[in-house]
Each structure stands twice: as C-alpha cells, then as structure tokens.
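Sample intake — Glutamate racemase
Collected from: Kitasatospora cheerisanensis KCTC 2395
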Amino acid sequence: MKIALVDSGLGLLAATAALRRLRPDADLVISCDPDGMPWGPRTPEDITEHALACARAAAAHSLDAMVVACNTASVHALERLRAEFEPEIPVIGTVPAIKPAAAAGGVVAIWATPATTGSAYQRGLIAEFGGAAEVHEVACPGLAEAVEHADEDAIAAAIAFAAARTPASTTDLVLGCTHYELVDDRIAAALAAPAARFHGSADAVAAQALRRIAAPTTPGAGTLTVLHSGRPAALQPAALNYPQGELLLGATV
C-alpha cells in the first residue's frame, strides 16, 4: 500500500505521522515544494499549479491514494487534482475541523493563514457547520513560515500575536493550517483559554485515506520517499524539531 502526501512544506508531517502510527506497513511518499513555499501568498491559479506539480511527481510512484495535506491547497486545488487523478488514485483533501469544534455550541476560534481567514471557502464552512457556536476567525501571519523553518523566536512571536486576538472565553480551537498541528503544545501554553479543546485534521485525514484503500495489514515496516519540488530528497533537518518528524525517522528511506 502506497500513499502520497502533498503540501507546500512540513505541514504534511502531522498527517504522515498519523498514517505511520495507524499503518506501520504503509509506504509513504512525501511530496512538498521548498522551491515554491509558502503557497499562501500566491494566487489561487498559482497555488493550483504548484500543487499539481507536486501531485504529478508523487503519482509517478504508483500510488493507492493521495492526501492533500494542506488547507490552502485543498481550498484552491482539490477540484483540479481530483479531475486529473481520480478514479485511479483517490484524492483526500484537508478541511478545517469546524464541524466537530462547533458541535457543542461553544466559543470557537479558527486559527488559519491570512489567505484562508475570511475566505469564501472558510466562511462557507462556518455557515454550514457553525450551528449555534460563536465563531471567531483568527489570522496567524507568519506562523506557517516560522514552523517550516523551525525558527523558535518567530514561532513564539506569531503564536503570541494570534493568541492575543483569541477570545479568553474560547472553548474550542480549530487548527486551520496543517503546520499549526506541529506546535499545538506551544499554542496551548500561550492561550488565555487553557481549557480549550483543540481540533486538528491529521487523524481524520489519515483515517479517511485508509478507508478509501481498505487494504489488509502486511508484515514489516513501510518505506518513506521524499520529493522536494519533484526531486528525490531527504527529510528536511527542520522536521526533526517536531515529534512527528522524529517518528518518521524509523522508516526505511
């Protein structure tokens, strides 16, 4: 069983680690785009082209499924990716976990990139799934880029900026960018709402990918293939600053 994960950068580590925990036997292909990262400031058309390039490089590895492990790419490119690769390769997108976060009708804060915050896509999800919850959109400028480069000072500054704009009454926090799941412990420590429940996407996306394949478990450990803007590469050194990256070191590369 071989599954690819596509993202601009290290945000895909969360879903990759979730897949590794669920299926140690799966062969995983990481296809990210350090040459074009970050995708957020690009136009929707440009984001789509970069996502397609990463997806095509991954598809050359005879995949059983493809995960778009990026909220921004899922917003802008998922339709094009599915049109090109399905039904031969199921394509699973990443959607902010607004529905489960709003289920209890509390105060929901959605942390996302500036490009996603206030977008028609996110506003549509809020309208569809927000229910009786009080929903606040919180832009997090620079956080994804700081996580990508494991810049601790920049991570702390970006988290502090967003935390200051998050209501103290928040009951549920949606991590609306896959990069943010790599630093959820630091986000929790910075919030004025220490009891807030966190809602990421990695576990749900991994489970959905495995449901689409429904392949039996096989003996042995799966391999890890890394592609950087289409080129064979190694896992970025910055990945080792996060537990998800350390987990993947156990794979055969």
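Post-analysis note: The chain is about 40% helix and 15% strand.
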